[in-house]
Amino acid sequence: MEHEPRVLRLAGGFGRARCLLAAASWLPCVALGLALGSELLLTALPAHHCGSDPARAPSTCLPLSYPESVPRAGSDGARPCSRGWYYAQSAADLLRSPVTQRNLVCEDGWKVPLEQVDHLLGRLLGCVLLGLGCDWFGRRAVFVGSLVLATGLGVGEALVASFPTLLTLRLLRGGALAGASLALYVARLELCDPPNRLAFSMGAGLFSVVGTLLLPGLALLAQDWQLLQGLSALATGLLLLFWGAGCAVRGTPPAPAPLSPGAPAHTRHLEERTHPGLQLISGGIKASFLHSLVPSEPSFYWPYFLAAGLEAAATIFLLLTADLWGRRSVLLLSTLVLVLASQLLLAGAQYLPSWMVLFLSVLGLLASQTVSALSSLFSAEIFPTVIRGAGLGLVLGAGFLGQAAVPLTTMHGRHGFFLQHVLFASFALLALLCVLLLPESRGRTLPQSLQEADRLCRSPLLRGCPRQDLLPLLPASLPGAGTQLAQEG
């Protein structure tokens, strides 16, 4: 476990040059946050109706008059619109979006959640596959390659003519952007020494929130989704120009391939299974809290800016507490708050006063953001260098899988929304028990190999019992490792 401090000392320590390099890695997070956040703007549904007289329209999906040749309405009451769609106002300041351009409403409204699931699936695959590539080919190669793909695919999205082609490009570009974010996250973590990892990781999160907040203003200037996508591709292209050939990930050589000769191939620790579950829960349960917060059809800006503000608040909370109390204690507290808020809303939302429902929903959203951010940092510190990219990719991919449950429910008319809330609330309760078994990674050096990760021990949760919890969670992978640990103790 002394390899990392020795390398840092030989490289001059975490001095001014490495500090500036780690801080400069925050700047790409603005462009990446802007590109990844565009999904909500592109799929926002504007106010619409069929025909030219909104006062006489019976509903948003029924035209004013029907020719006799038009078939009867389906089971959902929707009928083909014979006079064209009229969009009363723009959504998210875009006068033209994929929804309005292709009339993805009413009988074609199922294509919107399909596109959302497609984009999230791309981000999931990008995290898993390009995370593995980070370990095989190095962080810098994956970062540069992902930026090249994201820039080219962004230009293709701006010029696309058909909806199936748009789905394909959204899938691929989501994966490329997720891969670039993952490679940059891992490289930044490995640049920092233990006392500075939290600060620089959370600083990058705040810069990503800045990009999310800048996106509506950019959409107001563009007012066309194709121009907005072109500007997003330009931003990633500038990253490629100034960062791809620069030093964003310099000093991070390609890691050895996972399961190389001499590395044990066995089942990983409990903590490496807990963090994907936490990401899955926090990603999927956010929609339940938003639904409790605004049960009717919300406007675009209210949930958008609320989620961004709570993400910034969760990041600041972690900056103030995670190094002071430890990763495991803060994660345990956040998961406990998440469980309590979800259970109370699940059991008594109909009987609680409105101010209590509002408070529990905001508290649950804040807790889910905290769990997601801290679980990413926690798992990156626990996974050894040889599989850190692949391990963190699996963890982040589980979060996108949880988010994909929301548009799938919307596709079926939100009929399974209550069951989805029950499922995620139950999983959160199980995750709370697993957090108790996690080790504490605060102040520890990053494990470099699978053998070093095997020797991670659970530190006691209570400081009054320093000797009762010094054994590893699982037997050591090497035959003599247990004897060696006993001798060291």
UniProtKB/TrEMBL annotation:
Membrane topology, from the record: Multi-pass membrane protein
GO cellular component entries: endomembrane system; membrane
Localization annotation: Endomembrane system
A Pfam family annotated for this UniProt entry: Sugar_tr
Keyword Methyltransferase set for record: no
InterPro entries xrefs: MFS_sugar_transport-like, MFS_trans_sf, Sugar_transporter_CS
Record keywords, A-Z: Membrane, Transmembrane, Transmembrane helix
Transmembrane segments: 20-42, 144-163, 170-187, 199-221, 233-251, 301-322, 329-349, 355-374, 386-406, 418-438
GO molecular function, one term: transmembrane transporter activity
Primary localization: membrane
SUPFAM superfamilies cross-referenced by the UniProt entry: MFS general substrate transporter (SSF103473)
Entry keyword Hydrolase: no
Superkingdom of origin organism: Eukaryota
Cross-referenced Gene3D superfamilies: MFS general substrate transporter like domains (1.20.1250.20)
PANTHER family for the chain: SOLUTE CARRIER FAMILY 22 MEMBER
Protein name: Solute carrier family 22 member 31 isoform X2
Species name: Bison bison bison
Gene (name only): SLC22A31
